[in-house]
Amino acid sequence: MKRILSTIFVVIATIASISAQKAVYLTTEQLPNLIKSLPAPPVFDSPEFAYDIVRYAWGKQQRKDPKRAAIAKGDAIWDPLDSLFHQFAVPFGLEVTPKATPEIYKLLTMSIHTIDQMRIAPKAHYKRQRPFERYDEPMLTGEEDALRGEGSYPSGHAMRGQTCALVMAQIAPENADTLFYRAYIYALSRVIAGAHWQSDVDASRDGATIGYCALQNSLAFIEQMKKAQKEYRRVKSEKLIVKK
Questions:
Q1: What pTM did the predictor assign?
Q2: CA-to-CA distance for 165 and 159, rounded, in angstroms?
Q3: Which position among 157, 160, 182, 205 bears the catalytic label?
């Protein structure tokens, strides 16, 4: 009987943990609609799409650089979010983990899950073909089967990267310049991988910023931001003391 109860408690705890990871500050209905707040993706015979094609060719050239190709492959990892946080650890100044920085981890996770919701409607509405699909060419990152048929506009990765930078920059404004540059590189990785057009990632950075402005209306977000900022200062201070 004790074993059965123990198993039940473990299952309940696991479900609660999964639910918490997917918790959001605002529902889809409370967030701006990117179909209305962003322009439609470039049409085939437009100068903007011609630029997308040029950038796709540029991305394929970048794959020849082993270091840049390795960065693009690392940036392509979607789940879990720990991988994204690891990519931003250097510009942020801390490695974000559930154990070492629980308040920051919670803030980042919930913020990203909140803004992630905004990409679903425009992807389904526009059904834009991805670069690797249009040219029937392999991707750098081997994601073809996972991404084929999913709309290209906007880029979920680019939105996540920009959201991560926005949250981290509010926690540690002194690191804003390097954080936003890392988000820019993170977005370009999707062009290099062949997953997205340049206009996809450009729109995604705007979309994340729009969503982030909406987050400022959430009292829960504001309160968690205060906790995260306090935790950041404490952990950084402790690291400095250890170094001395």
A1: 0.88
A2: 10
A3: 157
